[in-house]
Amino acid sequence: MVSEVKKNCELRMHKALENYKSNLAKIRTGRPHAGLLEHIVVDCYGSVMPISQVANISVSDAKTITVTVWDSKMIGAVEKAIRDSDLGLNPVVNGTVIRVPMPVLTEERRKELIKVVKSEGENAKIVIRNVRRDANNELKAKLKDKLISEDDEKRGQDEVQKMTDKFIIDVDKLTVDKEKELLTV
To answer: In whole angstroms, what is the distance from residue 37 CA to residue 23 CA?
Structure first.
């Protein structure tokens, strides 16, 4: 009974951590990577699709992402989607290829991005703490229904707390690493 609750709790905390890592990957540091554009959606013949379903995204050099659109009629829509995204990028169309040069980050922009990173980190911690609360409530319910003993409930809560602490430390480490990455010129 207790192991079920712990397993479910760990799974949900792991998902929260993975989601945080994914969100951090979208925050650009001045270095291009293909994942930077993956969350952008394009209006494609009346339906909305992720950019990765209408084009190939690759890194051509240390400062440029190259987007090769499969359907030449979609080049304008893809360019508009990149330009209108919240990333502050200015794509350049070159025949059938869209080049996205990465602008140099200013000190002010770096500080703004660090605030975003810290905010995302806090959100991840909140999700992890909510998972802990749910697991503890589940353990209390099992105790009330006499499915587990008080000792099992106490031991389960202690183990859930240790798990929570471990995931919070992981979030803090990821946040510090991303801050260092953003401050590196």
So the answer is: 12
Continuous segment of H or E residues that includes residue 54:
none
**What length is written for the chain?**
185
Asked: is 2-26+106-183 a CATH 3.30.390.10 domain? The reply is no
Dump pLDDT digits (tens) for 106-126.
788 788 888 888 988 999 999
Half-sphere exposure of 54 (CA within 13 A, CB side): 27
| Its pTM surpasses 0.85 | no
Summarize pLDDT for 158-167 with one digit per residue, the tens: 999 999 999 9
Fold held by 34-101: Gyrase A; domain 2 (3.30.1360)
**Looking at the chain, which residues constitute the CATH 1.10.132.20 domain(s)?**
2-26+106-183
